[in-house]
Structures are given as C-alpha cells and as structure tokens.
Write a structure and sequence with these properties.
Blueprint: H1 3-7, E1 11-17, E2 24-28, E3 36-38, H2 47-60, E4 65-71, E5 77-83
Antiparallel strand pairs: 1-2, 1-4, 2-3, 4-5
Length: 84
C-alpha cells in the first residue's frame, strides 16, 4: 500500500506497540493535554490530524512503535503507516 492510498482512506486510527506485534488503539486525552490515552475506538477522518497526533505520541513514547491504521468507506482496514 502506498502512502497516497493511506492518505486517501476514509478513517485513521493511531496505535502503539511495545513489541511490534500487539497494537493498542489510542485516543485523544479527555483533559485536553497534547497526549493520547490507551484504548477507545477513536478514528480520525483527516489524515493530517491523525499524523500530527501520531507524531506527537511517537515523540513522547520513545520506547514504543507508533502507526496509523487506515480503513476504507466500507470499514475494512486497508493498511498501516509506521511513524518513525
């Protein structure tokens, strides 16, 4: 899957993993601080907004891998983009 195909998807979820195998969904923190909390089923509809959130999470979690998962309009997961 290309980066353009990911960006053109319908929805995006930020996830993190300590081992690269078990991925945990993340959602914006309810306290408004620029962090994310474990769990939830939050999907962004804008790739840039998801990328900004994922990049901020990646900078905060130096011990963890972070990715953006994309799904199409039918709700099927179509790919993932690692945030380095």
């Amino acid at each position: 899957m290309t980066g353009q195909e990911i960006r053109d998807a319908a929805a995006f979820q930020v996830q993190s993993s300590r081992d690269g195998h078990t991925w945990v969904p993340r959602q914006p923190s309810p306290n408004g601080i620029d962090t994310m909390v474990h769990g939830g089923d939050h999907w962004y509809t804008d790739h840039h907004e998801a990328w900004v959130a994922a990049n901020g999470l990646r900078n905060a979690l130096t011990w963890s891998e972070v990715r953006i998962v994309a799904k199409n309009k039918a709700g099927e997961v179509i790919g993932a983009q690692s945030i380095m």
